[in-house]
Amino acid sequence: MQPDRHAPPSSLSRARTRAFRLNGRAHAALVADHVLLLDYLREGLGLTGTKRGCDGGECGACTVLIDGRPRLACLTRAGECAGHQVETIEGLADGGRMSPLQRAFHERLGTQCGYCTPGMIMAAEGLLRRNPDPDEAAIRAALAGNICRCTGYVKIIEAVQSAAGSAR
User: Fold this and answer.
1) What is the pLDDT of residue 167?
2) DSSP string of 64-97?
3) 42: DSSP letter
4) Which of 63, 95, 103, 111 is surrounded by the most beta carbons within 10 Å?
5) pLDDT per residue over 79-104, tens digit each?
6) CA angle, 153 as apex, 150 and 156 as ends, to 5°?
């Protein structure tokens, strides 16, 4: 029996090996073209710090860094990361020690339920790498795509300011 040429190819037949750096380490895997980075990180690799929120690019809970820039993992295909550097919240800690920004969120009470925290931290990390001494307006602009339902954002902004101050 001849295969139907008009039938859609299976997901596996559209899978390709993708090579990129993940949290500072070389990484290569067979990933189907349609797989979102969010699903690949959480279900494929068990990196659950990147949160599933709205699935539509509205809440920022899934923010990761790609080449140092914040990106929404729910809108990014894993295959788009080939040849790039991907960083998740798990990659910020060094040897089990919190990064200065993570520590500032902890010390300044920048979390409530914690669900938005990884996305907030990754967005803020992207800002601090580009601008190590941001004013409040720059911090608010960098975090504008991240929604927190528990706080009034005051402690979150204070945490970012504190991390920027300790980097000086």
Assistant:
1) 62
2) EEETTEEEETTSSBGGGGTTSEEE-GGGTSBTTB
3) I
4) 63
5) 999 999 999 999 999 999 999 999 99
6) 105
CA–CA separation, 104 and 106 (whole Å) = 5
The CATH code of domain 100-167 reads 1.10.150.120
Name the nearest CA neighbour of 156 among 167, 90, 118.
118
Nearest Cα to Cα of residue 113 among 144, 147, 145, 148: 148
Show me where the domains of the chain are located. 12-91, 100-167
Question: What's the CATH code, domain 12-91?
Answer: 3.10.20.30
pTM of the model: 0.89
Distances (CA, A) of 155 to 16, 108, 112, 142, 144: 43, 6, 10, 15, 15
- Measured distance CA(107)–CA(8) in Å, rounded: 53
CA distance 38 to 59: 14
* Residue ranges for the chain with pLDDT beneath 70: 1-13, 167-168
Q: In the structure encoding, which two tokens stand for residue 133, read together?
A: 């001494």
Amino acid identity at 83:
G
DSSP label at 30?
A: E
